[in-house]
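Q: what does this look like with adenosine-5'-triphosphate bound?
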Amino acid sequence: MPENHGTKPRILTGDTPTSRLHLGHYVGSIENRLRLQDQYDCYFLLANMHAFTTKAESPEEIRTSTIEIVKDWLACGIDPDKATIALQTEIPAIAELTWFFAMLLPFNRVLRNPTLKTEIDAKGLGDTYSFGFPMYAVGQCADILAFLPELIPVGEDQVAHIEMCREVARRFNQVFCAVDPQTEDDDYPARGGLFPIPKALVGRIGRLVGTDGNNKMSKSLGNAIFLSDSPKEVKKKIGAMYPGQSRNPDEPGNVEINPVFQYADVFLTDRALLEDLKDRYRRGDNLGDGHVKAHVIEAINALLEPIRARRAMYEGPGGDDLVIDIIRAGTARANDLTERTLHEAKRAMRLDFGPRSLRWAPR
Ligand code: ATP
Ligand code: MG
């Protein structure tokens, strides 16, 4: 049983197993999870149902990514003795709450969600995306609220989703728990509401740009540096980056539009060196992009080295089994909590016909 379980304010967040984790995840959300895992009762969700909304034809890949993401978490320092790692598809309360919440949200409100629109463009989903794709935004309200959390550490793209989740929580509390609509967000539980109105906690860098220098770094866009990339891969990916229009021969370098400098800003720990590089680049001194890139490559590899070393412990024989045991133990705990939430929600909705229990058989 994790030492924080049940005694501390709660955090819920998660990642979609569409691939391994990248640097954007690290600075957008993982850093905060590591910082807060001692102070909060943390639940980290593997959103594998959501991976099916865009990758239904690749179940094997989703399964592999699910295991790999847990290895990434453990490699970063997420400690399953402190935080609970849970698998979305084995938490029936989430699926049930998704249906109920879908009835509290106007259809057009879901489709207007700006993050969905950006994803449809960036991932080239056209107009043939599955019905399940926009549903994931509703599902995410259930992912979050099933755990009754206070805080959700996420990147900037998730803020629109979390706003919708906050709306659903208010609405449920008003409709089914008779809470006055004028109530302040923080007061809902004290006024008899089931759901807290949780807050997004955006990381140090809310949107890390991808190596294409354009879109957000994303697992699905082929512009990511993965936490499990080798030093050689990091070198190759940074080396191939285009410095943007900052190298117009008539103008000194523009650090603001050069994505390599965005990485320098985020990853160089030697701030004096960073300022010196920026000054020289702006002045148009004889400072090649290769020189800046070399410092960025070194800084990223310094961050990733201990992560690679810890990851290696789970990559040998038996590593997957260890991960599956962690997932099973965490998901059983998540079911204890989310079944209680669902039971309370059903009671508020006059759907309660007595308690039920979920039993986990041995593997
Ligand atoms: P996909 O392309 O499949 O949507 P993704 O790379 O966007 O994958 P998610 O699993 O959707 O990753 O996101 C997990 C968490 O990481 C979210 O909190 C998200 O906001 C954050 N995140 C993802 N990409 C970035 C980024 N480039 N910068 C900062 N945070 C990010
Ligand atoms: Mg995403």
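Residues 133 and 327 are 25 Å apart (CA to CA). The chain is about 50% helix and 5% strand.
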